[in-house]
Amino acid sequence: MTGLGLSLVLRFDGSVHYGPANVSPRAAAIGYVVEAGRRLIEGSRSLSTFVSSTHVEFRALVAGARAVAALATHREVSSVHVRGDAAAVIQAVDPSRDATPGDAVRRRRVSIVRDALADVPQVSYRCVKRGKNQRAHALAARPHRLSD
Could you tell me which InterPro entries the record lists for this protein (predicted)? Predict the structure, then answer.
């Protein structure tokens, strides 16, 4: 591949749907969108099992990072700017931060994300407010609406 590659923005979000009185979680889902000035890839799916909202956010980022890696097999990608509203997830995957998840599952997911994006020359991570992550949030919430 030659020339300038794509500069991508990967937005991700996880969603946990609670039962009556918001007491116990009933369902979880993920959403992500990959953009390069326009939407290139979107993903949304429900999860059959989940541990916590942080784990759901990690799963959303893993799915989005894998989508970027798949795109990079046939398009040159020069940069990926990862955006999400889960500060703990962003801090854990950002190699410039000194944050290590406390359990093996989350550590494995950090490795998966970093490995998926390893061939991209520039990767940045930023925690954003939900308003800057609306499409990923809508995609994560979609499976809940379909199942209600």
Answer: RNaseH-like_sf, RNaseH_domain, RNaseH_sf
Global pTM value: 0.91
Query: CA-CA distance, 129 to 87, in Å (whole number)?
Result: 10
**Hey, what are 19's tokens?**
């039962």
* Helix residue ranges, H only, the chain: 53-71, 87-93, 104-116, 134-147
Cα 119 off chain centre by: 18
Domain 6-147 in CATH: superfamily?
Ribonuclease H-like superfamily/Ribonuclease H (3.30.420.10)
Q: Tell me: the pLDDT tens digits for 68-102?
A: 999 999 999 999 999 999 999 999 999 999 888 88
- Tokens 């962003």 correspond to 90
